Input
Amino acid sequence: MGSTIIKCRYRLTKISNILKPMKLYPDQIPVFPLSGVIYFPKTNLPLNIFEKRYLNLVNDAIKKNKLMGMIQSKKKDGEVYNVGCLGKISDYKKSSDGRILINLTGITRFEILQEVENSKLYREFKVKYEKFTLDLKPVIEVVKIESLMQKVKIFFNKSGLLLNWKEFEKLEIVQKIDTLSMIAPVTIEEKQKLLEATSLTDKVKTLESIINFYLHENNYRSTTIQ
Output
């Protein structure tokens, strides 16, 4: 089986330039639904925008406050999950063929309250942020991830995913877990569980439970990868 090389840009954004008190974030935001894609606060998500409705969304956001939400779409037409992540457009570049290349820097997760009717091509939602106040605070949890990391390396290797582990080790623990959650070859439902885990401890437990399931299902051999 061939391998997929994962190139992760571990760029540290000056998040202090983006974060505000929770109450200052808008309670109505434009949302880009995309299946199989999650991202977290303090991570960067590059996007290649080419559909008319999302070109409109990005251009409107640039003119306003550069804020937009990302959320996973469900298999049923039009349905989305209840939790997504608010991001700020930190890079914006137009290509000669009409596409827009952007980078979204994650700020905080949100819960959807209801969809807002509008005359625009893209969708907007009323949202709230209270459940995820920890997203805007320094992480003080002490979580051991040695066991998880050993299992992740086995799982990634058997799945044909290659990651630069030396560069990965330079990340802070939250960045490590969020990066693994974003790139792990698991189902959209499992990715959503990781996104909705409110604390780092919960996220680590959820990720390890998911990895354990795949290791057990595929009877992967417990070997350590350097």
The longest helix spans residues 200-218. The CA atoms of residues 174 and 200 lie 7 Å apart. Residues 22-136 form a domain with the Archaeosine Trna-guanine Transglycosylase; Chain: A, domain 4 fold (CATH 2.30.130.40).
